From TrEMBL:
Keywords: Signal
UniProt xrefs under InterPro entries: Ig-like_fold
Protein name, UniProt field: Lipoprotein
Organism: Deinococcus peraridilitoris (strain DSM 19664 / LMG 22246 / CIP 109416 / KR-200)
Lineage: Bacteria, Thermotogati, Deinococcota, Deinococci, Deinococcales
Signal peptide (residue range): 1-21
Length: 191
C-alpha cells in the first residue's frame, strides 16, 4: 500500500536530479569592440582593433576572418582580444566570431576605412572691405569633411563629402583649416 507513493517519489527525485545534470546553453556569446569606434576612418593602413567577447559559461574560440586568435590566460567568461589590421585599399571588412564551449557562436562585421589623403580646399570668392574679410569656398574629401575652422573658430556646418562655406572676419588675414574624418588637415592663409 505504501509502494505506489514511494515509487512516485523515487521517480520524481530522479527526474529532478536528471534536470540538474544537463543544462542547455541558451546564451550566445557577445562581442564588444572598444576601439576603433564603429564607422571610424584611420590615416594609417594598419590599425589595432581591441575588444572582448563574453559568455555566461566560457568562450572557447575567437576568430577573425576565419583565423583563430590566441586567447589570453585567465577567465574564459570575459576574454579580451586584440589584432592588427593591414590593408592596401581604402576599405577593409573584418568578420569577428566568438564561439562558446556549448558551440553557440556570434559573428559581427567590422568595416574599416583608410584615408591617407588630406581634404581639398577651394576658395571661390575673397573680398576685403577695410578691416573686414569675407571668403566663400568649398571643402571636399574622398570620405567626409568633418570640420572647417576660420581663425580657430569652427563653423557650424554639417559633415559631408562636399561642404560649401562662407566666413567673415576682421584683420589682415584669415586662417582656414579643413579636417576630414581621418583627422587629415589642410590649411590656408587668405589675405
Amino acid at each position: 500500500m505504501f509502494r505506489a507513493p514511494r515509487a512516485c517519489l523515487l521517480l520524481l527525485g530522479l527526474a529532478m536530479l536528471g534536470s540538474c545534470a544537463r543544462q542547455t546553453d541558451a546564451f550566445q556569446p557577445r562581442i564588444i569592440i572598444t576601439e576603433p569606434a564603429a564607422g571610424s576612418v584611420s590615416r594609417q593602413n594598419s590599425t589595432v582593433v581591441r575588444g572582448y567577447a563574453m559568455d555566461d559559461r566560457a568562450i572557447a574560440q575567437i576568430r577573425v576572418n576565419g583565423q583563430p586568435l590566441t586567447l589570453r590566460e585567465g577567465s574564459r567568461k570575459i576574454v579580451p582580444f586584440a589584432f592588427r589590421t593591414s590593408t592596401t585599399s581604402n576599405r577593409a571588412d573584418y568578420s569577428i566570431e566568438a564561439v562558446d564551449e556549448g558551440g553557440l557562436s556570434t559573428k559581427i562585421a567590422l568595416p574599416l576605412r583608410y584615408d591617407p589623403n588630406p581634404p581639398k580646399l577651394e576658395i571661390t570668392k575673397f573680398e576685403r572691405e577695410g578691416e573686414t574679410l569675407r571668403v566663400s569656398g568649398v571643402a571636399t574629401d574622398d570620405v567626409k569633411v568633418t570640420s572647417i575652422s576660420v581663425d580657430g573658430s569652427k563653423l557650424g556646418l554639417g559633415a559631408s563629402r562636399r561642404v560649401p562655406f562662407f566666413a567673415e572676419s576682421t584683420g589682415k588675414f584669415m586662417d582656414i583649416v579643413v579636417t576630414d574624418a581621418a583627422g587629415n588637415k589642410v590649411s590656408r592663409r587668405v589675405q
